[in-house]
Design a protein that fits this description.
alpha/beta; three-stranded parallel sheet; single chain; five-stranded mixed sheet; 213 residues; globular; 9 helices
Length: 213
Amino acid sequence: MIPVFNDSTELARQLEDLRTHFGDVEVIVADGESWDDPGSVAVAHDALFIESEPGRGPQMNAGAGAANGSVLWFLHADSVVDPGSIGAIERALADPDAVGGAFRFSLAKKTWYKPMLDASVGWRTNTLRQAYGDQGIFVRAEVFRLLGGYPPIARMEDLVFFRRLRDTGPVAALDTPIGVNPRRWERDGFLRTTARNLIAWWWWDLRGKGRGR
C-alpha cells in the first residue's frame, strides 16, 4: 500500500522494484489529489490505483479498504525495499501472536550522520518498539480493522497507529533494512530534523498523547 502526493518519479522506481523482487503481489497506490498523473504510473506497473481525500492516514485507510490480502504492508513511495522483505514479514508473522512490525531504518545515502541516525532509530525500534511510517509498517489485516486503521489526525498518524498496534500484541523489529530517503534531513538539516522528531516523539508517545484516536 503506497500513499502518494506528487511522487510519480519515486513511485515509478518503487513499483519497478516491487515487481522485480516480488512478482504479482497485490500493490495499491492511493493518491491524495496529485497533479503529476500517478494513475498512469500505477497502471503501467499493474498496480491498483485509487483516489482518496489528501493525507497519509486517509490514503492508507482507503488503500487498506481495497486490499484483499491478510497482511497489509505500508510503504512510502521513496522507500528502497530489500528483496527479502516479504520473506521477512512471513517469518515474523509465523508467530501466531505477532500482530505486525516494521523494518530496520537505513538512510539510503552515505552521509556523516547516517551511522548516528541509523543507530538511534534502531535503538528506538528495538528497545521501545516504536516505529515511524518510513520503516515499512506491516500489520495483519484483521488487526488493522480491529484498531480502526490510521487515526484521523494531520500529523504523526504512523506513530500513534504503531503505539496502538504494540499495545495490542507483540510487534516485530525486523533486521531486514528498508532504505529511507534523506531528503528531509538534507532540506531542513540534520539537527533541526532530529530535534523536531524528538519533540514529536515525546509529545505523541512518551507523554502519552498517542493512546487515543
